Amino acid sequence: MRVDGRQPDELRSVVVKPDFSAFAEGSALFEIGDTKILCNVSIEEGIPRWMEEEKKAGGWITAEYAMLPRSTLTRKPREIYRLGGRTQEIKRLIGRSLRAAVNLGAIGSRTLIFDCDVIQADGGTRTAAITGAYVALEIAVHRLVEMEAISPQAITNQIAAVSVGIVDGIPILDLCYEEDQRAEVDANIVMDNNGNFIEIQSTAEVKSFSQQQLKEILYLAEKGIMELLQIQRTILKECIG
Question: Which residues contact 94 (CB under 8 A, 6 or more apart)?
Answer without folding.
Answer: 63, 65, 114, 116, 126, 129, 130, 133
